[in-house]
Write a structure and sequence with these properties.
This protein is mainly alpha-helical. It has four helices and no strands. It has a domain of 52 residues.
Length: 90
């Protein structure tokens, strides 16, 4: 994942996220990742006309931004599942 064009805070978040295996930087980035790599979302976009895909993207972006808790241009949204990172001692 490229760090070019990211703020210092975003770069540090990317380094941490790369270590944890994921990084979502904005609503647009979230949609792009899910559109390309998450099966149900990928199939949905494949079934929509360009016009309907644009409408869906605009509505999804608005929804994501509504729940975004970050104020620095990044994306922090509440999750319905806990995320746990375990490291082995020694």
């Amino acid at each position: 994942m490229s760090r070019i064009g990211c703020s210092a805070q975003q770069r540090s978040q990317l380094v941490l996220a790369e270590r944890c295996g994921h990084a979502i930087l904005s609503a647009e980035h979230f949609i792009d990742v899910f559109r390309r790599f998450y099966g149900p979302t990928h199939k949905l976009y494949g079934a929509l006309s360009e016009e309907k895909a644009a409408t869906f993207t605009a509505e999804l972006t608005e929804l994501i931004r509504k729940f975004n808790r970050a104020a620095d241009g990044t994306l922090v949204v509440p999750s319905t599942y806990p995320e746990l990172v375990i490291t082995r001692a020694g």
